[in-house]
Amino acid sequence: MSEPIITCRDVHKWYGQFHALRGISLEVKKGEVIVIFGPSGSGKSTFIRTINRLEEHQKGTIIVDGIELTHDVRNIAAIRKEVGMVFQQFNLFPHLTVMQNVTLGPIQVRKWKKEKSEEISMQLLERVGIPEQAYKYPGQLSGGQQQRVAIARALAMQPKIMLFDEPTSALDPEMIKEVLDVMTELAQSGITMLVVTHEMGFARAVADRMVFFDQGLIIESGTPEDVFYHPKEDRTKLFLSQILSH
Amino acid sequence: MSDKIPPPQPSTPSPSLIPDERARHRGRTGLAISWEHIPWWGIIVLIVGVFVAFSVFTSVRYQDALSFIFDLPWHKDVLKQLDSTRIAEDGSWTYTAQPPLTPKAHYTIYAEFYNEDGSFNGRGDIYKFQISKEAEAGEKQALLPSPETVQTITSTTPTFIGKAPAGTAKVAIVDDFRDQPLRIIKRIWNANGVILTIKVTLIAFVVAVIIGLVFGIMRVSSGSPDLRVNARKRLLFGLLAVIILVVLRSQWRTPTAFISLLLGIEIFAFLLPAMPYTFSTLYVEIVRGVPMLVIILYMGFAITPALRSASNNTIDLRGLPAAVIGLAFGYGAYLAEVFRAGIEAIPSGQMEAARSIGMSYFQAMRFIILPQAIRLILPPLGNDFIAMLKDSSLISVIALPEVLQQGRLWISRNFRAFEGYNSVMMLYLIMTLLLSLLVRSIERRSQLPND
Ligand SMILES: Nc1ncnc2c1ncn2[C@@H]1O[C@H](COP(=O)(O)OP(=O)(O)OP(=O)(O)O)[C@@H](O)[C@H]1O
Ligand SMILES: [Mg+2]
Questions:
Q1: Which pLDDT score is estimated for B1?
Q2: Nearest Cα residue to B267 out of B319, B300, B227
Q3: A140 to chain B, closest Cα gap in Å
Q4: pTM of the predicted structure, to 2 decimals
């Protein structure tokens, strides 16, 4: 495969005294879909949030799309333009319509014209299946619809990388599928994706690689085939047996 | 731009897709009073309204007090009051315009006569004239009455001669400008009493909101920074700065001066990231701990004279500026707290989402955090506006003729405390009630639609 688009080397993160990431090294190639899973509190969210600098790492190197993340504000801004993020709690802007939510980034950050941004946004809303909700407010949509808007909002910046932090865990079961369908379609379109999720069906279907986190460390990584059917580590086996048993 | 909510787009296929939009617009248009449930404030408005109407229409005293507090009339000025010493035995009087009138201006001037007890005793002849462009002062020009035609005169100090009816004790020379809308507007803008109160409150509130916004944002910035970050750089910076200073100024080359300089600059260098927070917290805590009255007195009688003498009279804040600055400075501290609370009430996910689509901190503040925070803080903001309107009465202590001061002036002239203070109270009550209606209606408009 091609060049790595994300390179993490020995990344450490402390919250005060608490050592949340204890040396994460990971390379992600262009177009790869990586699923990150692991027990609660293992540092999955912390890790993917360091990639667009919502959390600051204190040791190690993170290089995204050829730019190293340092204290330099310009680097951070440049990287954030290339990295889209979808949150567990959607985090839509409740005072703006769906359309305004999606066009805000292109207009204010990319400095595109309003018409162009709206045209692109409408296409994205069609892609995630909710063009008819464009002029509603987030509060008027269902959870699944809101999460799809959030995906469209991230895509509107035309990022090279998409980060998902448990995008379906705040959703009712009947809405999970509509969001996963959008994500599956996205994965097949060739965009680089890092997904924190426990939706193992989704992982099996679209992941190129699965990464198992525990206590701030990567315990095991490999293809879904390997991780599901031939896990090497006991902790991985134990965790998989717990989440697959129900 | 994006903090405004756009109307439904014409391209939307059918109105049924935007079900809440129409109800939302209905809610936006008015006060939406439902007559089935007249709310408590409606009843109060009604009672006060009836009371005011009753008093005003039945009592000359209230009419007089209210018109004095409103600084009426707004269409004429009294140029001069001539007392009985300037009225001759037979009632004839003369008046030479002093100070001079304005060249190029139009005037309608007449005399009003008053009896010993202050009652109206008729009006004299009307002079209508225009002063020519080259007119000068000094030259006395006796004018003839001209109620119909406008005469042109060449002096800015014309002389009026007239004869008062028997019994006249006072002659008021009146400059009537009811046909000149611009002068009326100017007169209203400069009117004392109610207008001044509203003007001071509005200006001071706008300034206070700006102060509150800036200090509120400063207060949500990092509280206690990590002193270890860049510690070596800061130490070095401090040392360098001190060395440069010492090289430049020979009198600082003593050990005590060196050490105190070094300490001062190092402390400053370490506190620099916390400066916005420290500074704004200091402001908020100090100002909130001092009574409004003290702030206004301090502004009016300590700072203003000091500034005036320090700047050789070029910075003169006497009157309105001092009052506005005092009020705004005092209320800015409360509003800073309101803004801080509003900003902190917005879930952190909003800022994260905004940052993750590449917005800068200030873009996120402007487009995401503040528009939401302002919706939250509208009620306390409105309350503070009303409180400020009431506290504007405090500026009467620096002799600004706002509602209370005008009321007291009227009372001191008429010895009618009851009518005077009743009028003052009613006026404040009407203003605050109207304002709370307005605040409610704005609150209702700014609500977001939910499912
Ligand atoms: N802001 C913070 N301050 C202090 N500790 C934190 C903070 N954020 C996270 N932590 C701690 O860091 C650890 C890792 O948190 P993280 O959110 O990354 O876990 P996670 O793997 O995403 O878990 P979950 O599946 O519950 O989302 C947890 O023990 C958490 O308590
Ligand atoms: Mg998490």
A1: 41
A2: B227
A3: 4
A4: 0.82
